[in-house]
Amino acid sequence: MSALDWASSWRIARRDLLGRFRGLRLLFLCLFLGVATLAAIGSLTSAITQELSQRGQGLLGGDVEIAMTQREAGEGDKAAFRRLGRLSETIRLRAMARGERPDSAAVLTELKGVDNAYPLYGTLALQSGVYRAPLAPDRILIGPALADRLSVKPGDRLVYGTATFTIADIITDEPDRLGEGFTLGPVAIVSLEGLRRTGLIQPGSLYDSKYRLRLPPGADAQAVREDLEKRYASAGWEYKDRDRAAPGASRFIVRMGQFLSLIGLAALVIAGIGVSNGVASYLALKRPGIATFKVLGATSTDIARIYLLQIGCVALLGIACGLVVGALLPPAIVALAGDVLPVSPGFRLHALPLVTSAAYGLLIAFLFTLPPLARARTQPAALLFRGVVDARHGIDRRSLIAMTGAGALLVALALGTARDPLFSAAVLGATAAVLLLLLGIGWGVRQLALRAPRPRRPLLRLALANLHRPGAQTAALIVALGLALTLFVTLAGIQTSLDSEIRNVVPKTAPAQFVLDIPSGEGDRFQTIVRAQAPDAQFNIVPALRGTIVAYGNQRVTDLKELPDGAWFLRGERGITYSTTLPEGSELVEGQWWAPDYAGPPLVSFDAEAAKTLGIGVGDTLTVSLLGREITARIASLRKINWETMGFNYIMVFSPGTVSAAPHSLAATITMDPRQDNQVTRALLAAFPGVSVIAVGEVIEQVGAIMTQMSAAIVAAASVAILAGIAVLVGAIAASRQARSYDSVILKTLGATRWQILGGQALEYGLLAMMLALVALALGSGAAWFVIVQIFDFTWSPDWLIVLATLGGGALLTLGIGLAGSIPLLSVRPATALRQL
Prior knowledge:
Residues 29-230 form the MacB-like periplasmic core domain. It comes from Sphingobium xenophagum. Residues 262-380, 717-826 form the ABC3 transporter permease C-terminal domain. The chain crosses the membrane at residues 259-285, 306-329, 349-370, 400-418, 424-449, 712-735, 765-788, 800-826. It is found in: Cell membrane. This protein is of the alpha+beta class. Helix content is 53%, strand content 17%. It has 24 helices and 22 strands. The strands form two sheets. A six-stranded mixed β-barrel has the order 2-3-9-6-8-7. The protein has a six-stranded mixed barrel with strand order 13-15-20-17-19-18. Helix 8 runs parallel beside helix 11 and helix 16 (474-504) runs antiparallel to helix 23 (800-826). It starts with 5 loop residues before the first helix and ends with a helix.
């Protein structure tokens, strides 16, 4: 039965809270960090997903897209497409743009030919206004990057292949840019007739034909796409609809979403521990007041109401501030992330992630507040007065039931709102296992310290006694230190692995140039022209074709409900080649290579990792659609491919015969002094106007810049967990403040100096850090490995010296934080402190 109503309880709570807010600052900080992190993650993910969904038609350029490589659809197929809706045809290829003068610089571009229906959705924006079809055959629209690199403007002239174009305008926004995928150069747009004038489309040339459909109102784009896939199952075409306009961007969102979910859930749990420590610290300061309330007749319900109101007010303030910051952060993140994000959504409030984050904050505050509040509510006044030296940690049944209910709601909320419930369940399970492990280590350390022989050195004896004395916060310190050190190791492992990935973008043996679309049969002439400009040049010339894997073993790809994990090579067309010998950069690991004069049924050498992903091996069959014709080959060997060489590393290498008879071109790498790039490029374009020359250095710079931005974004997100971990450590130290104040006063009364007391505590924290170092190294390395390998599919290659140095630095930092929290206690006068205890 309560002696006080809610109004009276609120008056007492408000007056007490106004008098001393200090103890609840940690509660505020932890909830603020946790809610702000979750709200920012949820808002950013929702903004990008919504932007992709709303712009699906514009990003794709239609409701449905049919794409093919090295060929165009027949007139019969186009007629069938037109019966479904309005049709727009585009052809896209890589081509060299150059000025009219022979000595003009040449730039690799993405040249796109469009028909009069382009664009079906969205607007092609130009500097002078909006594009209106038709585009004259001798006119060209170019991107601003191309204008800058060639120093040209509207009215100037550019040469592509054998055709000359006049620049009509500068493109400011290409509506289907994201749907086109990764590009190696700036864009330029001509009409389909203008593209054919260039002479760049020849048998074997590498180009993409895309047919976009604008369906009638109410038509089901997904159903149309699925029907086309079944009708043309053997054509080897690639299909998209408006709901998956940018699959590469969607995969990026899934991966980044998993990582951010991992960070959010980790911050959530860490914030909960900080809340518990903060509330425990606050109630420890209020212990005399609580005991006095009880002596004056306050019931357990009164105590619960008063302090629940206080804690609730601060919790609501922390949650509200976290929501505000979380809602405002996404635009800043978008601005900082640059090209890492697939789209740049504008500012908009997203209610669902904000409501979800607030619910997380409330449940966390309630769940982790209950244990310390239950102890304060149920313990008798006499026990509260002796709490410093006789602390008890039991929780009554009613509080235990409430905690179980809150925990169940929290897990249900986490799984119910997750994009990948299994992933979230695994993260929550792993986090719970880590916390249980740290709690078990804390209990074990306390028992070992209790039973260990007493050292002769006073400071060491004092440090050991601090681990098991009454009121010792050993378990809380173990959890806090363990989390902090683990997070430091995790961050170092992620950072150094990403740095290594960025360094590997620049292999030591990378060629200077890639050259594509060399006419078949012109390999010797090609080498002669290059050697005239670069006598020491080295070559690797291979046939270049494009094909789609349509079946492996007895499994048709179209019959799969979803692709196997890691089977990226089943998405659309891939480069293939044929060879009489084992290609450079490959190592035979199983099977045998065919004889140089082999002339039997088609054989193929397959990438060993890809074969493992599909569960096939030597002797199994692989069916590839090549220019609309299905070729079934037996796997003769498996190869390990050294992708780091940046050479021509094809996952499929066929035996000569059936494949070599198909129209194709040659591709080459040239290894030479990079200073000879320009003169070699000019000589090649003069002899072969249709070739595309890719400067490897520019590609490396472009990929490296994106990787660097991505690395910065990942590390910045992971740093949030570091801040939360440090807050938890501060809370654990604050929770033991009163007990340490009592110890400090007693020791000073017995003659101990400040430095002796501080030295004892330094030894205590040092012992704990040393015991936790190996545990933190194992847990942190495992977490970093999971992020790098399982989420982002990068190579796990941490710099262990930096990781160990970070672990040592983290240990010193945590030691410094612990000692900094103890310094104010050393200045307390014994007489004053004893009167307060």
